[in-house]
Amino acid sequence: MLQPVSVAQKHLSDYASIVGRPLIDEIRERAQRLAGKRILHVSATAFGGGVSEILYTLVPLMIDAGLDCEWHVIYGREEFFNATKLMHNALQGSPDGLDDEQWETWLRFNEINAHDLSSDWDVCIVHDPQPAALASLVPDRASHWVWRCHIDLSAPNESTLGRLVPYLEPYEAAVFHMPQYVPAGIDGRAHIVPPAIDPLAPKNMAFSPEDAVYICQQFGIDVDRPLLCQVSRFDPWKDPLGVIDAYRIVKEQMPDVQLALVGSMATDDPEGWDYFNATVAHADGDPDIHILNNLNNVGAIEVNAFQSHCDVVIQKSTREGFGLTVTEAIWKARPFIGGAVGGIPLQVSDGVTGFLVSNIQECAQRSLEILSDPGLGRRLGLAGKESARRRFLTPRLLRDWLELFEGLAI
């Protein structure tokens, strides 16, 4: 069978004081009607990205609600993940698609994983394009199949999308972050379900200012000077080079400013190391630019510390499926600046819960405004936190999944 992922125990009751008792009661009522149903999540990796972060909370909460839920990870080698990274970029608009050999590699590894997929599931939820062929290869392994797309399909490479869509036909439902991401060919099977963060996870739990200061100091941050921070993968769509350029404009007027670029290196992202190295080169040895990843002992607690302490959180994406790092930042009541793309405007009301920008100069100007006016930063941060509490925490996501399952009549 595929590799099962072990998850910790989580309890819905622990979230009641955050999201409110009515939502928890609704979840319990819906889950009672689905008690014992067998649910399988299949994804490409167990760490290093937003999908795995969601599942580490969603799966145990499904279990606590009374579902028989598991999470399995597919097998892949470097040539497979190289192909799927190309596919991911092409589906988000890159002109470079897969050649025939790479498509054959993708299908071959899907066939290997299909052979090892266990059976008798009421619902099998396949996350993203990497294992998307499973439903067409072994449709009898589950009574119902759902494809969960976590990427921005609003302006895809049409050739790549055209070759993928036939493999999506067996799925009874397909779930997207936003209506704009639903491609032609999905017909009436599309469901819109934004993702969410776990407010009780180490990355998002309440952190004292003293603890955040202590941790940031361990990585060379001068905690008495202003800090800009972007937390994301090292990926061209996240534009870390543009963030460095914006920081340099800010530094011309505020020489004390520092920048932290904090990211994780995922097993299904071989391109990440190339872009990490490009980011280091672009920083050109500036001692006030701190470029960190999970191999520098930067884990969930450290990310929390950087997001909780910094003066401005940036997510200057040029394409973005949703942007869980945006949700994390505004949940911590930090003033936020993000690219006006993908799922970021869904989360951020410009000038109310943060700022949306379209270029390097706007990013720098908004950073200067926040750094010059702490009251503005506080207002943006508090409004952002309340918006995240109401809309983007995991219990709401669980409720949406239960509603979808009921619609499938499982």
Account of the protein in words:
The chain has helices spanning 16-19, 21-32, 50-64, 78-91, 100-116, 134-137, 158-168, 209-218, 240-253, 271-283, 300-309, 324-331, 344-347, 360-372, 374-391, 394-408, and strands at 3-4, 38-43, 68-73, 121-127, 142-148, 173-176, 190-192, 227-231, 258-263, 289-293, 312-315, 336-339, 355-357. By secondary structure, it is of the alpha/beta class. Helix 3 links the parallel strand 2 and strand 3. The mean pLDDT is 95.
Task: Give the N-to-C terminal Cα separation.
Answer: 24 Å
Whole-number average pLDDT? 95
Portion in helices: 40-55%
* Biggest sheet overview: 7 strands, mixed
Strand content: 15-25%
Rg result: 21 Å
Count of separate DSSP helical elements: 16
Strand order of the largest sheet: 1-3-2-4-5-6-7
Q: Structural class of the secondary structure composition?
A: alpha/beta
User: What multimeric state do the chains show?
Assistant: single chain
Number of strands: 13
Instruction: Tell me, briefly, the overall form.
Output: globular
Flag low-confidence runs.
none
Order of helices and strands: EHHEHEHHEHEHEEHEHEHEHEHEHEHHH
Topology of helices and strands:
Elements: E1 3-4, H1 16-19, H2 21-32, E2 38-43, H3 50-64, E3 68-73, H4 78-91, H5 100-116, E4 121-127, H6 134-137, E5 142-148, H7 158-168, E6 173-176, E7 190-192, H8 209-218, E8 227-231, H9 240-253, E9 258-263, H10 271-283, E10 289-293, H11 300-309, E11 312-315, H12 324-331, E12 336-339, H13 344-347, E13 355-357, H14 360-372, H15 374-391, H16 394-408
Parallel strand pairs: 2-3, 2-4, 4-5, 5-6, 6-7, 8-9, 8-11, 9-10, 11-12, 12-13
Antiparallel strand pairs: 1-3
